[in-house]
Amino acid sequence: MAITQHQRIPFILFLLLIIIGIIGCEPTQNQQTQEHIGKIVPEISLVPLETSDAALVLSGKITLLNFWGTWCPPCRRELPGLARLSARLSNEPRFQLIAVSCGGGARDDLDQLRGDTAAFLESTGIEISAWADPSGVTRLKFSEAFGFGAYPTTYLIGHDQKVLAIWTGYSPSVETQIAQAVARSLKNFSVIDPL
Hints:
By secondary structure, the chain is an alpha/beta fold. It has a single domain, classed as Glutaredoxin. The chain is built from six helices and six strands, in the order ααββαβαβαββα. It has helices at residues 5-23, 31-34, 73-88, 110-124, 137-146, 172-188, and strands at residues 47-48, 62-68, 95-101, 130-132, 153-157, 163-168. A six-stranded mixed sheet has the order 1-4-3-2-5-6. α3 (73-88) runs parallel beside α6 (172-188). The chain is globular. The termini are far apart.
């Protein structure tokens, strides 16, 4: 049975989601990600999915920036660990988790994304502030700067807005790696007292 033109696009999208799911299953910190360590992150333009969220400020904080999606099985496994880490560090003003909920395409329907994200967070009991990149501009900038192209992808960003580490994909060991890297970064981060 031949696939018609009308059936081809959903079939290709289905295959891409399967490939992304497979790629996302094994975390990588390879030569490609290592070459980006120390680079300054591009400007981030995100929208809060909750109206009570404040504006994003990267400077002066250790930031864990995570691109994930409710449709992505490895993302769904990774996010609870990131939320636990964020909860443990909730009284640490020098740390922030920016969890960017992404749809499956380059541009996202904000209302759909808001509903899907809220339903997922409620059903799993995960308490985080979620953000969105509805225009895809931030993901495009990160793709151009660092080769971002798989979910989940997590960036550890220093107080000087430089990349300290990048994780692409998920495995349970990544949670420990991320927690240790955040702890080291906070330990090495000296607070500058205002005059």
